[in-house]
Specification:
By secondary structure, the protein is an alpha+beta fold. It has two helices and five strands.
């Protein structure tokens, strides 16, 4: 069971190894780290499934189909509103204007 609480660790660094634009024969690797505990693990994304390789464990991966992942995230994931692209662009322009005025 997945439970998210206020005290959960937030990832502070996420890096990806992109081998190609489209996931074909090689997995997309996403390394997840925190500032306090270091590496949490590696997320491996492929055409057929998604896998989690926990820190310190180079043998046993946790594998899930894309349908099972969708069911999990829809059932247990936190709902957040998506900002519209126009609002994001306006916010970026406003930040740009204020930073150029100061210079």
């Amino acid at each position: 069971m997945l439970a998210v609480t206020k005290g959960d660790i937030m990832a502070h660094e996420v890096s990806a190894k992109l081998h190609t634009k489209v996931v074909a024969n090689k997995d997309l690797e996403v390394i997840v780290k925190t500032s306090s505990t270091g590496k949490l693990g590696t997320l491996l994304i492929s055409k057929g499934n998604i896998e989690w390789l926990p820190r310190g464990n180079s043998v046993n991966r946790k594998r899930m189909t894309w349908q099972a992942f969708a069911d999990l995230i829809e059932g247990k994931g936190k709902t957040v509103r998506v900002k519209k692209a126009a609002k994001r662009k306006a916010a970026k322009k406003a930040v740009k204007k204020t930073s150029t005025k100061r210079a």
